[in-house]
Amino acid sequence: MSLLQVRDLGKNFGGVRALDGVSFDLPEGQLLALLGPNGAGKSTCFNILNGQYRPDAGSVHFDGREISNARRSMKPRDVWRLGVGRTFQVSATFSSMTVIENVQMALVSRKRKLFSLWRPAAGMYRDEAMELLAQVGMAAQAQRPCGVLAYGDVKRVELAIALANRPRLLLMDEPTAGMAPGERNELMALTRELVVARKLAVLFTEHSMDVVFAFADRMIVLARGRIIAQGDGETIRNHPQVQEVYLGS
Ligand code: ADP
Ligand code: MG
């Protein structure tokens, strides 16, 4: 059974059908890209998966448990506790705190099973925080305030923060937005490593097709809330409807 099972998801906003009959599976150890033009329904899908929105139709199962359907949906905090992590488009770091303090704070949140804004004492979860920072290539910058970091490095810290909760599924909505091409490749290469090392499942959106083709195991293309194609890079590249959506609209 797949870690994530999405079945027939539907979501309307007023007259707009943001999602319509969306179904897919995501097993652990896989990097799945959700593609599609602006307004296709990608963020709506993420927001249902993390418990922010309740779907109008369909269901989401994670690790065999139903996290939402049209009648009820778990709260974002409960979805997070189950092991669904996410990175944020708006920075999730505190710029006046150091890199390691940001990660320590995330670790405090996990151990206490709630989001914490409590500034950790210097020694708290230090080793665990350093280990996470090493994994994202930020150990050498542990004592710098987040506010002075390069943009790509902030994204690495955010990844460490997301990993602090030991997610089994990580949702990344436009993780490389605002990055230079080199930084994009670096972040996705790192994500790829983490997927393999931790058997993580990752669902991400990305505008650059080059990045997607280089790093995703599989991709799903949405247009107007519906899946128009899914498969590997070869399948997507040669799909007539995908070419139409990307070149025609
Ligand atoms: P994408 O992330 O692929 O660009 P979205 O999921 O953000 O697409 O949006 C899909 C459609 O749903 C769009 O037409 C958008 O305007 C609409 N939409 C998304 N969120 C809301 C909302 N909170 N209220 C009203 N309409 C929304
Ligand atoms: Mg979006």
UniProtKB/TrEMBL annotation:
Organism of derivation: Herbaspirillum hiltneri N3
Stated name of the protein: ABC transporter
Keywords noted in UniProt: ATP-binding, Cell membrane, Membrane, Nucleotide-binding, Transport
Lineage top rank: taxon: Bacteria
ABC transporter domain residues: 4-249
Keyword Metal-binding: no
